[in-house]
Specification:
CATH class: Alpha Beta
Structural class: alpha+beta
Number of strands: 5
Largest sheet: 5 strands, mixed
Helix content: 25-40%
Order of helices and strands: HEEEHEE
Number of helices: 2
Distance between the termini: 39 Å
Shape: globular
Number of domains: 1
Strand content: 25-35%
């Protein structure tokens, strides 16, 4: 898909779809996408083959001019994801579940297949 003229939101949406497709191919089950709560958010909530809930942050870039996508997951962003994850767990009454925080970095460049890097357990719960 040509990226020229696409805004950041469209590129981000394409990156999230690419990440979700990747997870499904790896045997994950997507439980929810774009979960929002007061002060928190999670791009993808998925369950891996072992039953662990993965709260996944997707970072997408069109080039490496501004650095690796995964480096954009700052401490502040980790805090927002953590708040979203806790809200999702509470909403779904899964207080006894095993969970982790993953990052998927997607590099989308015109004329190339997407480059995907999945980083399981990328960070711990951030308060």
């Amino acid at each position: 898909m040509p990226l020229i003229g696409k805004g950041n939101q469209a590129v981000g949406d394409l990156g999230e779809q690419t990440a979700a497709d990747y997870l499904v191919k790896q045997g994950y089950r997507i439980l929810e996408r774009n979960f929002r709560s007061r002060g928190g958010e999670v791009d993808i909530v998925a369950k891996d083959r072992q039953g662990c809930i993965a709260f996944v942050e997707v970072k997408t870039r069109r080039s490496l001019a501004y650095g690796l996508p995964q480096l954009a997951v700052t401490q502040r962003k980790q805090h927002q994801i953590s708040k979203g994850a806790l809200a999702w767990i509470s909403k779904n009454r899964l207080h006894e579940c095993t969970a982790r925080f993953d990052v998927i970095a997607v590099l989308l460049q015109d004329g190339s297949e997407p480059t995907i890097e999945h980083i399981p357990n990328a960070f711990d719960l951030a308060y």
